Structure formats: structure tokens, C-alpha cells
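To close the section, here is one more complete example, presented without commentary so you can practise reading it yourself. The ligand is flavin-adenine dinucleotide.
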Amino acid sequence: MIFTDVVIVGGGPAGSTAAWKLKEAGRDVLILDKADFPRLKLCAGWITLRTLKRLEISETAYPHGIVKFRTLYFHIHGLPFPVPTRQFSIRRTEFDHWLLNRAEVPVQQHVAQRIERQGEGFVIDGKFRCNWLVGAGGTGCPVYRTFFREICPREGEKQIVSMELEFQVAMSTTHCHLWFFQHGLPGYAWYVPKKGGWLNIGIGGKQTSMVKKGADIREHWRRFVGFLLKKKLLASPPPTPGACSYYLRQNGPVQDGCAIIVGDAAGLATLDMGEGIGPAIESGLLAADAILHNTTASFDSIPHYSLSGILFPWKH
Ligand SMILES: Cc1cc2nc3c(=O)[nH]c(=O)nc-3n(C[C@H](O)[C@H](O)[C@H](O)COP(=O)(O)OP(=O)(O)OC[C@H]3O[C@@H](n4cnc5c(N)ncnc54)[C@H](O)[C@@H]3O)c2cc1C
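Output:
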């Protein structure tokens, strides 16, 4: 049995950020992740100025590819709205690996499954024992499943389903586009250029609204790709996309004794844009703070909406 003060299940932005701050304060931390990093994570990779600030890094100090957008091109029901701002795009495979390495804590590749309370602490799969347990395993987090599903059930209305693809393109493009409610999509479609000729395209929308309309995310994807080809934003049909789902912000308990859930495990993505990286990072910081000061974690200070951060990025 391996004993560590804090075990964090999941080494994504939420888990690695909590680990970074706990390690900095001298705590003994172990991250368990089912994936071997660098790992693929379906995500457009749009991050805000606020997120970089919380990570205590400037865009010039970030060691991998980062693109700065001074304008986001919003399209609402077909009408274009260029919005002056200061936002960024990164590649998740690089960003998450960099965050994990920066935490400088041991990482063990392990699929956490059976989690039990033992006295004041926890035992994971009969192999790992800890005083504090942080659930940072994303939407399917086993810590959420074990301790929080009953006390903090997920709201079906908040479920987002998405299809997404990141691939290299020959054409050079630097404009970031977002199309809201296009072709009846109850959400938005995106076109996010990255450094090195990478491009991320995707669509996301509320599952319940799609079901009500008898719509299918794959049909929305076909329409979106047809639209990009017609507008010459794509030169040829793209490869096959991936699909996944996550939950928008909901309010509920995020701590049960010495177990805390963070990031997508807690359902923290913003209600307007589904921004989840920033909230994951902020919840990791707040969870670390609660552990260090033996207080109860609260994520009330994490914004529920992204729009204000897009319109007034310097204020955040
Ligand atoms: C298509 C799509 C596009 C998105 N675009 C954006 C965007 O542009 N900007 C933005 O801010 N947000 C975006 N989001 C949301 C964002 O990706 C998430 O909110 C964010 O990744 C949450 O971080 P996390 O650390 O909580 O979880 P994750 O990044 O999902 O990390 C969870 C980790 O836990 C591990 N894990 C899971 N189960 C286990 C287990 N049983 N045992 C061990 N390890 C486990 C996984 O391997 C993973 O590494 C998008 C989401 C989707 C689906």
C-alpha cells in the first residue's frame, strides 16, 4: 500500500493545478491518471487572460505554441459581430503536459475504480491510501461517482454534447470564428487556429434541446463542415472527428469530509460559452487552499459566465 497525504485522481488542468500549489506548500501529493501524458484531450483550447494570470504566466513565457486573438468573430443567426478582445489558443496535448510537469509531483498511470473511506482517509483500489482525496477525473470522475453523485446529481439540462477535431491544415489562417445557433444548433460552432498550422473545429450544444428538436449532433457536424467548405474556410473535407460530453456550471456541494471535486468532475464550465479550462484551474487553486488551511472549499468566486471576460479581459 502506498501512503500519500493527498491523492489527486486526474492530471488534467484541475488536478495538476491543485498539485502544483500543494507541492509548493510542501505537501506530499500523488496524481493518478489513467492516461499516459502527453495525452489527447478533445477541446478547442481557447484560454483567457484571466486563466494565464491564475497560472502566473504570461503568453510570452509559455514554452509551447500560443496564438493571441485581438478580435473574436462572433456570428449570431448569420450576422457577423467582430468583438475586440485579448484571448488565446493553445494545444491541450502540450498545455496539459506542461502543467503536469510544472507541478513536479509523482504521477502514476492507474485507472482509479474502487474508492473507500477508511477512518478519516481513503483507500483507492486497495493500493493507495491518503488523508485528502481530490477528484479531478473529468465528467466520469470516480470520486464524483462514489461520494457526490447522490448529494450533487448532475442536471440533465446542463449536459453539452460536442464533436471536435484538431488537425493540420495547409492554408494559413489566424481568425477565430464562433457561430451561435447556426442551422438550429442549440449552442455554437467554432473555428480556432493554433500555432504550427493546427486548426481546431467543433460544435457543441445542449443535449436535451437537441433531443426535443429531434436533431442529431452528427447531422449538425455534416452541415457545419459543408458550410466551412462553402466559405472556403476548409480546402478539403476534414478527417473523422471525436465526440464527448460535459456539464455546464451547476451549484452543489464540492466537498464531503476530506474529499473535494474540481473541474469537470464538479461541473464548472461557464453557462454561456462552456469555458471549462479556466474554471478547472481556479477550482484546483481553491481546493489546494482549502486543504492547506483546513477550510471548506467553495467555488462561488469562479465566474458563471465568460462574456464579461471576453468584452473586458483586462478587468479580470
Ligand atoms: C469538444 C470540447 C471543446 C472544449 N473547448 C474548450 C475551450 O476551448 N476552452 C475551455 O476553456 N474549455 C473547453 N472545453 C471544456 C474543457 O475541456 C474542460 O472543462 C476541461 O478539460 C476540464 O479540465 P479537468 O482537469 O476538470 O478535466 P480533464 O481535462 O478532462 O482531465 C481529467 C483527467 O482525469 C483522468 N481520468 C479520468 N478518469 C480517471 C480514472 N478513473 N482514473 C484515473 N484518471 C482518470 C483523464 O485521463 C484526464 O487526464 C471543451 C470541452 C469539450 C468536450
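Once you have examined the C-alpha cells, check your reading against these statements. The longest strand covers residues 79-90. The chain has a mean pLDDT of 96.
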